[in-house]
Amino acid sequence: MMTDLLTRGVEQVVPKELAEEKLKSGKKLRVYLGIDPTGSHLHVGHAVPLRKLQAFANAGHDVIFLIGSYTAMIGDPTGRDTMREPLTKEQVKKNFETYREQASKILDFSKITIRYNDEWLSKLSGEDIMKIANNFTVQQMLQRDMFKERMKKGDDLSPSEFLYPLMQGYDSVALDVDCEIGGNDQLFNMLCGRKLQKAYGKRDKFVLTTKLIEGVDGRKMSKTYDNCIYLDDEPNDMFGKVMSIKDDLMAVYFECCTDVPMDEVKKILKGKPRDAKARLAAEIVALYHGKSASSGAEMEFNAVFKDRGVPEDIQEVKVRKGQKLIDVLVGEGIVASKSEARRLIEQGGIKKDDEHVASIEALAEKGVYRVGKRKFVKIL
Question: What are the extents of the domains in the chain?
Answer without folding.
Answer: 2-210, 223-306, 315-379
